[in-house]
Design brief:
mainly alpha
Length: 170
Amino acid sequence: MKPASLIVLGITGAAALGVVAVLASVALKQEPETGLLAWQDPEIIGRGAEIYRSECSSCHGGLDGSAPAADAPEPSAPPHDENGHSWKHPDYVLFGLTKSGEVAELCLTGNGDVEMPEFAEALNDRQILDVLSYIKSTWPEEVRARQEATNQIYAAQNAATRELLENGGS
């Protein structure tokens, strides 16, 4: 083979390898969907904020940074902001706890008169996901990143829950 042909072949090969490397890099940067919550979607967050204010804030406190009303009772359940512990759970667990109303003893605040409602009676699955998406949208970036790391550990459970919800059963 002539030297000029070898140079052209080498340049073509290097260019092809460069394209493959760029495509592989882009593919690797796209993280798989590990969670259930669309916390970056403004429409979903808006719907979730409305539900949170009407169904959750009286027990868990507000998340929008506004001061509570002067006559508002002290929250009787753990907060859902970065000071609480909601973000320590993967999405599928948050969904299940909200839907069923079941909470662990360690989540209770000492007020035995207040129980978590079973929101399956009051909210449909989409509404529960909307309110949880809103809650997640209010967390600082570092807290969301830590919760997403938990979601990655439980990606299979989140995926199974997503599939169940998409097929109309939960």
